[in-house]
């Protein structure tokens, strides 16, 4: 046994290794230990054939190491093996010196060399040592910082995204913004599909939406915050961030799955306002059974590490067939203690309506953003009534008691429940 290539977990503990967990399926006759070894070498110092120049010093310092292989189910006797395809969890440690705080290089090291290693794997999780995570600032605001910034403590935060998703000029969007703001929503953001088209530049939206927010505040006494979508190409995204912040944006929104985690990190470190990371498009990372990453990693841990203060996550309740376990694990990745990294506030999106508010609060807690789109603009009484119904639902949940009984006393909420029934 090669004592450099194969190691025990205790031997790397306290050293600067990033440890990856993979799922792999192999023909019954394949030697999984050798396969794991080729993956560890191929993703660090070697390739598919032996090459000159690899010294023992290079192997010691720079080679990946196989830490563990677990078969699923756990079998110890050949007589127990009946399937022609075996399933395994492989644990490999990578020297962090190869990529430091560079997220693109880290993902390349962990996933990007499949053609060379000939290993079709799915990345399940990454365990980062504290030394590695110290290179990252994480969310600049985090859960409590977002609450302090908005001036909202205790209750869930309400968010609406302007609908229709695209096709509106800033002035047309501002009219909808005003109607929504009158109903008691806390944050209004762009839809993830609206970024930087010629007919609606993000800095122009900031200017007119601010006026709409101020006009609504004159009526309600509460000022809605606007998070503007800056998602665009690498050639001008940071210029867009500067321009919208200079124009008075309350927050930034970016589709991190499309622009990349390192771009999210750069925005979070420089914007100066809270950043909402939207997971639109993240399915391309995790929907494959035998490649990509697991959803709690792609849509949770890495977004938090990169610095998103709020992260829009999918749920099993809005029509998307996400496993409930993965949904809950994603929430854990965003919120549980993790070295010095602040928690990201989960934003629940997709199919959110007043009748499901109590279910989300019971299941997730109050440190969430409830993102309702169609249930606001699609309310029978209009956008103001839709926003008011969401606010009434939150207030009833905060008061306690029977939701369905109390909801009958609220006109807008009762109308909403006729269209979108209560979900227990």
TrEMBL record:
All copies of domain Ribulose bisphosphate carboxylase large subunit C-terminal, residue ranges: 142-420
Record CDD domains: RuBisCO_IV_RLP
Database matches in Pfam families: RuBisCO_large, RuBisCO_large_N
InterPro entries per UniProt: RuBisCO (IPR033966), RuBisCO_lsu_C (IPR000685), RuBisCO_lsu_C_sf (IPR036376), RuBisCO_lsu_fd_N (IPR017443), RuBisCO_lsu_N_sf (IPR036422)
Residue ranges constituting the Ribulose bisphosphate carboxylase large subunit ferrodoxin-like N-terminal domain according to the UniProt record: 17-132
Similarity comment text for this entry: Belongs to the RuBisCO large chain family.
Designated name of the protein: Transcriptional regulator
Native organism taxonomy: Bacteria, Bacillati, Bacillota, Clostridia, Lachnospirales
């Amino acid at each position: 046994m090669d004592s450099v290539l194969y190691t025990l977990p205790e031997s790397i503990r306290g050293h600067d290794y990033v440890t990856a967990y993979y799922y792999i399926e192999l023909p019954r006759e394949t030697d999984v230990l050798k396969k794991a070894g080729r993956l560890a070498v191929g993703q660090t110092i070697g390739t598919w054939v032996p090459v000159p120049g690899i010294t023992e010093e290079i192997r010691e310092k720079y080679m990946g190491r196989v830490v563990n292989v677990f078969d699923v189910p756990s079998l110890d006797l050949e007589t127990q093996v009946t399937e022609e395809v075996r399933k395994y969890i492989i644990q490999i440690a990578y020297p962090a010196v190869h990529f430091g705080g560079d997220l693109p290089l880290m993902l390349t090291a962990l996933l990007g060399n499949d053609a060379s290693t000939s290993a079709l794997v799915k990345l399940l999780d990454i365990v980062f040592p504290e030394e590695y995570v110290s290179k990252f600032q994480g969310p600049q605001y985090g859960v409590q910082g977002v609450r302090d910034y908005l001036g909202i403590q205790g209750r869930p935060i309400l968010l609406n995204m302007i609908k229709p998703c695209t096709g509106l000029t800033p002035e047309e969007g501002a009219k909808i913004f005003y109607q929504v703001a009158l109903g008691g929503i806390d944050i209004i953001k762009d839809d993830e599909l609206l970024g930087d088209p010629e007919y609606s530049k993000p800095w122009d939206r900031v200017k007119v939406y601010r006026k709409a927010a101020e006009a609504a505040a004159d009526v309600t006494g509460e000022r809605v915050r606007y998070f503007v979508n800056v998602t665009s190409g690498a050639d001008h995204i940071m210029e867009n961030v500067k321009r919208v912040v200079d124009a008075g944006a309350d927050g930034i929104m970016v589709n991190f799955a499309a622009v990349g985690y390192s771009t999210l990190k750069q925005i979070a470190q420089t914007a100066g306002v809270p950043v909402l990371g939207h997971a639109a498009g993240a399915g391309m990372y995790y929907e494959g059974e035998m490649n990509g990453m697991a959803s709690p990693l792609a849509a949770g841990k890495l977004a938090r590490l990169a610095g998103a203060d709020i992260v829009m996550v999918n749920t099993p309740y809005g029509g998307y067939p996400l496993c409930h376990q993965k949904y809950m694990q994603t929430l854990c990745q965003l919120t549980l203690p993790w070295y010095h990294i602040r928690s990201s506030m989960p934003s629940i999106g997709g199919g959110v309506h007043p009748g499901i508010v109590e279910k989300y609060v019971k299941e997730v807690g109050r440190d969430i953003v409830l993102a309702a789109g169609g249930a606001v603009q699609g309310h029978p009484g209009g956008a103001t009534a839709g926003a008011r119904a969401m606010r009434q639902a939150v207030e009833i949940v905060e008061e306690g008691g029977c939701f369905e009984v109390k909801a009958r006393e609220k006109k807008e909420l009762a109308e909403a429940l006729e269209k979108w029934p209560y979900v227990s």
